[in-house]
């Protein structure tokens, strides 16, 4: 915890968790951690828009470059605003070290470059963000790193896919768009037993709802572009984990190869973290209400939401993630024409594949985010032609429901 003021006497928020060691609660760290006040006495965190840093003497420059003396040299290596974001996110995820990156994909690439080598093997869940699958299949394969895929929730399938060369297990939970989940404690246990690292892309839950490191994962990956920003402004990412793997090995890739986060984007994410818990609770509340409403609409065949009792991994809500998160998917009757008709009838929801924004978004996965899969692959993944995904924003839910009701009225119900 690095913080220039003394927060312990702050009124804890309704959900501030204070750990027994006396560390300030989550909400306090989200607001306070990482800012070292400069001599100007500023209250808000400053943006250090500087590419390089000045030394007091030639000797100091030499000591910085040799590593004998800590301190800033160049913003590809370190920047105070970026560091403030890294310290705050590390604290919220419960990790020793955090490295910020230019995008979520840069975070995944840096993990692979920092921790894997030619001949290594990855086991990943089949339901992954499309660019992650592309990175593994098209690019890492060229450098001698192979990937196998298995069904996210089936621990036996993970176990069976592990080979002697397997070094990394990689998953997203809940998955996109069907919100499938894996028991992270059990998967972390398996990774340990089989001598692999477990990396969790925690984009959908954020540390406000789920902390994979506390459940035994080795690495947490973020697309900060989504909920950490929370208002759809900037692209960025981060990796959180231990001092050696993340603080040295992943950091070394960033510092050398250069997909570092800009100070301006770091500042936007730093401010985003201050309201993260409030926003995630509101997104979850809205999504839970929408899922219940959708479940009783005649035009809807099936709802996919972790908070619904019929969800196959419903038992993991509460056990490993607080609340169901902000993403709801559902099958509309009438296949693609039904789904497209519903989407085109909306006037409030934004037709875009992004998520984690204050604005609710609506997508047809089969023809957009998952459009590159063959029809057979889509069917195997459960992504039907009638499937629609809504990333619930922070508008009044009655307005979202009214917007969807208009389109659902057009769907043939017989
Ligand atoms: C968006 C996203 C990414 C990639 O992040 P970028 O910031 O777009 O590079 C990775 N994983 C998940 C789950 C995402 O939603």
UniProtKB/TrEMBL annotation:
Q: Which SUPFAM superfamilies match?
A: PLP-dependent transferases (SSF53383)
The first-level EC class reads transferase
Task: Output the superkingdom of the source species.
Answer: Bacteria
Chain positions with N6-(pyridoxal phosphate)lysine modification? 226
What are the EC numbers? 2.5.1.-
Q: In which pathway does it act?
A: Amino-acid biosynthesis; L-methionine biosynthesis via de novo pathway; L-homocysteine from O-succinyl-L-homoserine: step 1/1
GO molecular-function annotation terms?
Answer: carbon-sulfur lyase activity; pyridoxal phosphate binding; transferase activity, transferring alkyl or aryl (other than methyl) groups
> Single Gene Ontology BP term?
'de novo' L-methionine biosynthetic process
Q: What catalytic activity is recorded? A: O-succinyl-L-homoserine + hydrogen sulfide = L-homocysteine + succinate
Q: Which residues form a coiled coil?
A: none
- Keywords recorded for this protein, A-Z: Amino-acid biosynthesis, Methionine biosynthesis, Pyridoxal phosphate, Transferase
Instruction: List the cofactors.
Output: pyridoxal 5'-phosphate
One Pfam family recorded for the sequence: Cys_Met_Meta_PP
GO terms under cellular component: cytoplasm
Cite the residue spans of the region called Disordered: 1-46
Q: Which family does it belong to?
A: Belongs to the trans-sulfuration enzymes family. MetZ subfamily.
User: In UniProt terms, what function does this protein have?
Assistant: Catalyzes the formation of L-homocysteine from O-succinyl-L-homoserine (OSHS) and hydrogen sulfide.
Listed under subunit, the entry gives: Homotetramer.
NCBIfam families this protein is in?
Answer: O_suc_HS_sulf, PRK08133.1
Q: What is this protein called?
A: O-succinylhomoserine sulfhydrylase
